[in-house]
Amino acid sequence: MPKVTYIEHDGTVHTVEAELGSTVMETALRNDVPSIVAECGGGCTCATCHVYVDEAWLEKTGAPSEQEETELDAAFDVRPNSRLSCQIKVTEDLDGLVVRTPSYQGR
User: Fold this and answer.
1) What are the C-alpha distances in Å from 95 to residues 13, 35, 44, 84?
2) pLDDT for 107
3) Domain assignment present for 17
4) How many domains does the chain have?
5) Contact (Cβ atoms closer than 8 angstroms) between residue 13 and residue 70
6) Residue 105: inside a domain, yes or no?
7) Side-chain half-sphere CA neighbours of 84 within 13 A
8) 3-class secondary structure, 69
9) Percent residues over pLDDT 90 in the chain
10) 3-class DSSP state for residue 8?
11) What CA–CA distances, in Å, run from 78 to 40, 51, 70, 82, 90?
């Protein structure tokens, strides 16, 4: 199983195993990563699963869709490497993925 590392804004690190085909958001929820809120449950409608993809992983995670970009416009502290974790599918290629979370998950 691929591993995903979540680094919270305060430096707390969670490295967890992810199921292939699940999303980075679903993986966080299954493993009680507290800084992923996911109010909409993965519908790409709330931006409360916002993460910063580590620079080394940007190419492998791909670019956000137009819908995701629209939701990111309403997120807190958006950066060039911002993504919604509900939109990143876990694949073998993402084994070792590192994402960071913002200090606030809301609008």
Assistant:
1) 16, 21, 23, 18
2) 52
3) yes
4) 1
5) no
6) no
7) 27
8) helix
9) 95
10) coil
11) 19, 9, 12, 6, 22
Per-residue tokens: 99: 């994402």
CATH number, position 62 = 3.10.20.30
Structural domain of residue 54, as residue ranges? 3-100
106 is a domain residue: no
pLDDT tens for each residue of 20-49: 999 999 999 999 999 999 999 999 999 999
Q: What is the pTM of this model?
A: 0.95
Dihedral over alpha carbons 107, 33, 70, 41 (to 10 degrees): -100
Asked whether residue 49 is domain-assigned, the answer is: yes
Would you call 52 helix, strand, or coil by DSSP?
strand
61 by DSSP, 3-state: which?
helix
Any idea how long the chain is? 107
